[in-house]
Amino acid sequence: MKTHIGFAIIIAALIGFPSAVLGGFAVDLEGGGVFPYYKNVRIPGDTGTKISLTDDLDSDPAAYIRGRITYAFSEKHSMAFTVAPLRLEADGCVEEDVTFDDATFPAGTRLKAEYRFDSYRLTYRYDFHRASRLKAGVGLTAFVRDAEIRLEGGGQSASKTNVGFSPLINFNVEWMPVERFLVVMNGDVLASSQGRAEDVLLTLKYRASDNLGFHIGYRIIEGGSDNDEV
């Protein structure tokens, strides 16, 4: 399964903006629009029909929200817990028989697809560089996914679920070009022979006060795997 999803973040509030105070908490609430670029799937991986949920079916933009709680237990060390649910839908007709999991949908069947990818992440990060205008850090993320792809049509349905764990590499870079404004890039990434995953955010943040900020930017999620199962 290969998935590439662009997140256009409309606006998000950062409540409890991380400050120089040690032992502080920060709550980050993010929301916006999701614009799918490609979602290709074949289940089983060797015998199923390859179908695109964006090209073969119509996949409309959707809304999303995610939240993160960060605890800085020293000047350079922090832990964060992130909850990121995601739901996307698509529908339409395909001009060939579609074999998906244990079901076969005849050509021309009106299909409805549901794509769910909920993730839960626990991140440790070490800020190896901290200056007045530049901060950079790296860490590790324990990533748990609860995913499902469901296909319905013609009175039958089939779904593929997956709950799994992956370690990811976390990074964060913050640059303050002028007072109160920050350019931030952060994310979780990993690539291996079993698959890959990237969740990267580029955003402009405005620090209204020590305890409140806003940001607007773009998030991209891309990843997938290719094996006998998917």
Question: Can you offer a commentary on this structure?
Answer:
The protein is mostly beta strands. The protein has a single domain (2-224), classed as Lipocalin (Beta Barrel), CATH 2.40.128. It contains no helices and 15 strands. It has strands at residues 2-15, 25-41, 51-52, 58-59, 62-72, 77-84, 87-93, 98-100, 103-105, 110-130, 134-153, 156-178, 181-192, 195-209, 212-224. Strands 1-2-5-6-10-11-12-13-14-15 form a ten-stranded antiparallel barrel. Strand 8 and strand 9 (103-105) form a beta hairpin. It is elongated. Mean pLDDT is 87; it is low at 1-22.
How many structurally independent domains? 1
Rg estimate, integer Å: 20 Å
State the shape: elongated
The count of helical stretches stands at 0
Order of helices and strands: EEEEEEEEEEEEEEE
N- and C-termini, Cα separation: 6 Å
CATH class (first level) name: Mainly Beta
Instruction: Give the structural class.
Output: mainly beta
Known CATH architecture = Beta Barrel
Measured as a percent range, the helix fraction is under 10%
Low-confidence regions: 1-22
Average pLDDT figure = 87
Please summarize the sheet with the most strands.
Answer: 10 strands, antiparallel, barrel
Looking at how many chains there are and whether they match, the oligomeric state comes to single chain
The tally of strands reads 15
What portion of residues belong to β-strands? over 45%
CATH-defined topology: Lipocalin
Enumerate the strands of the largest sheet in spatial order, edge to edge or round the barrel: 1-2-5-6-10-11-12-13-14-15
